[in-house]
Write a structure and sequence with these properties.
- The chain is an alpha+beta fold and about 180 residues long.
- The chain has a single domain, classed as Inorganic pyrophosphatase (Inorganic Pyrophosphatase, Alpha-Beta Complex).
- The strands form 2 sheets. A 5-stranded mixed beta barrel has the order 1-4-5-8-6. Strands 2-3 form a two-stranded antiparallel ribbon.
- It is globular, with a radius of gyration of 15 Å.
- InterPro entries: Pyrophosphatase, Pyrophosphatase_sf.
């Protein structure tokens, strides 16, 4: 269902704006994944009193180094539904590692701001966000990985230029992969 529709969505809209497909909406206690049939599946439930502080999703028709589409943490003014396709601008990267089959592997998250946001309209890079914003995001990821008993480390942060480079590499990798459909 969603997967078939996303086959026709390009990674970018106009210029440097990207399409972000939301899997897990801000405010949800559940982490959702879209399965091979195109349906949403609940992959995880957060403990009572905890919710996802941002929407989580990916850029369609990209392929990150982990083999999945490029992961995005999407900053919006409010909640958006799972399955929404939102135009956004990349502002930075949270550089992280977590355990993958007994080995620590990079699992960076690109941070984007929804273009429709009025509250974050001035934000162009991660350093434009309020003081402590990136730390808050890192703390969420530490807590999340502790909850699922997975070793995790914050490696650093990157600004907009690094995020754009990751996007370009993920677009190139998708173009070279015959399993990633041409939109």
């Amino acid at each position: 269902m969603f997967l078939q529709a996303l086959d026709h969505v390009t990674s970018r809209t106009e210029g440097e704006a990207v399409n972000v497909f939301v899997e897990t909406p801000k405010g949800s206690r559940h982490k959702y994944d879209v399965d091979a049939s195109g349906l949403f599946r609940i992959a995880l439930e957060l403990p009572e009193g905890q919710t996802f502080p941002f929407s989580f999703g990916y850029v369609p028709n990209t392929k990150a180094p982990d083999g999945d589409a490029l992961d995005i943490v999407l900053v919006t003014d409010g909640e958006v539904p799972a399955g929404a396709l939102i135009e956004a601008r990349l502002i930075g990267i949270l550089k992280m590692e977590n355990d993958e089959d007994g080995t620590m592997a990079r699992n960076d998250r690109v941070v984007a701001v929804a273009n429709l946001s009025r509250m974050f309209a001035h934000v162009q890079t991660l350093s434009d966000m309020r003081e402590g914003f990136a730390w808050d995001m890192e703390l969420f990821f530490r807590s999340y990985n502790d909850m699922i008993d997975r070793p995790f480390t914050v490696v650093g942060r990157g600004e907009r230029d690094e995020a754009m480079k990751m996007l370009e590499q993920a677009e190139d990798a998708a173009r070279r992969d015959p399993d990633v459909p041409d939109p």
